[in-house]
Amino acid sequence: MKLVSIVGARPQFIKCAPVSRELRKEHEEILVHTGQHYDHGMSEVFFEELAIPKPDYNLGIGSGTHGRQTGAMLGAIEDVLVTEEPDVVLVYGDTNSTLAGALAAAKLHVPVAHIEAGLRSFDRRMPEEVNRVLTDHASDILFCPTETAVKNLAAEGITEGVHLVGDVMCDAMNYNRAVAEERSRILEDVGVRPGGYLAVTVHRPSNTDSRENITAILGALGDAGEPVVFPVHPRTRHYLGEYGLLERMPENVRVIEPLGYLDMLRLMAHAKKILTDSGGVQKEAYMLGVPCITLRENTEWVETVEAGWNVLVGAGQEKIEDAIHSFSPASRQQNLFGDGDACIRIEEILTGLQGAPPG
Ligand code: UD1
Ligand code: UDP
């Protein structure tokens, strides 16, 4: 089988690493990087650390408004698909690269397989929610990480071609956890000790593009009473600069460049708590057994909240401070995201569909 896999943003590199490794045992994979993320620390570092094959195509699309970025990707991906004539196009998650890939393929009648299908925050103001819904409705094969995702699809009338396979981020973590412990020196580099700091990521437009919200978040971090390690996404750095907040960073908050995956894993694993608005980081916190404080009003990873390991606090300073000081999960974790064999299942399902009509 010939597959074209489409990636473009940081979390997609991490997700595609284990899938690509599995698929290439039996199939031909053409890897397309849209160029949505392009800084070394947002892109190349993941290819190097995770031994992801060099992309066959880098479309070099870069940043832009949603319409311009997605539109430029759509045209460029179409050209690749016309040249390569794949049997299946594989897309990941919920970024503009995901939607462009799904749409380009669907219009050319190439079957689309969506990894991380069925996730919903039910918040259409998030660009990701629009991307998720549209991608799922353009997909023929839907690989769901959780039961909730399967139910969400059923509620929208999508029941054909749906497969519950577990979460490929669990596979990625299992593969890299010990390596991260061995190779990463991030705790030593930033000068924190295990269990003695908070790890933070913020990059959602609802937080970064609002002076009020990001100021409240930094206010709460400043009152945490312990060191805070904050690898800053370029979007966030841009707004922190614009609001003049970089120079007024609380003393206990260590602002650092975005981390590679191995450093990020080790930083999260030893944190006392994690504060984030990232989708992937909420799951990783759960898998690592670290309490997670989510700086959003909603989440698509509802299982982590129901299990008592994640609390949604939005961007109100008082609520964040309360959670920093008092949030404490009562229950033990369960295996919410599978056994780390999602990639094997995905490969088996795709192989089984070979020659059969999709769905
Ligand atoms: C994107 C995804 C989001 C995902 C996130 C992962 C969409 C709509 N959003 O958000 O779902 O959670 O990636 O990190 O697809 N920039 C750089 N260097 C880079 C990349 C970005 O400086 O390598 C800056 C640019 O100013 C750019 C801004 O960050 O305008 C935002 O980048 P973009 O890819 O549009 O969205 P993200 O916020 O990264
Ligand atoms: N991540 C990383 N370095 C960082 C911040 C995040 O390697 O500095 C990893 C994180 O561990 C997770 C993924 O990137 O695996 C999540 O990506 P992000 O938060 O950018 O996007 P989201 O998951 O919200 O779409």
TrEMBL record:
Ranges for domain UDP-N-acetylglucosamine 2-epimerase: 24-350
Keyword Isomerase: yes
Enzyme nomenclature, EC number: 5.1.3.23
Coiled coil stretches, renumbered: none
Keywords of the record: Isomerase
Molecular function terms, GO-annotated: isomerase activity
Classification via InterPro entries: UDP_GlcNAc_Epimerase_2_dom (IPR003331), WecB-like (IPR029767)
Protein name, UniProt field: UDP-2,3-diacetamido-2,3-dideoxy-D-glucuronate 2-epimerase
Gene assigned in the entry: wbpI_2
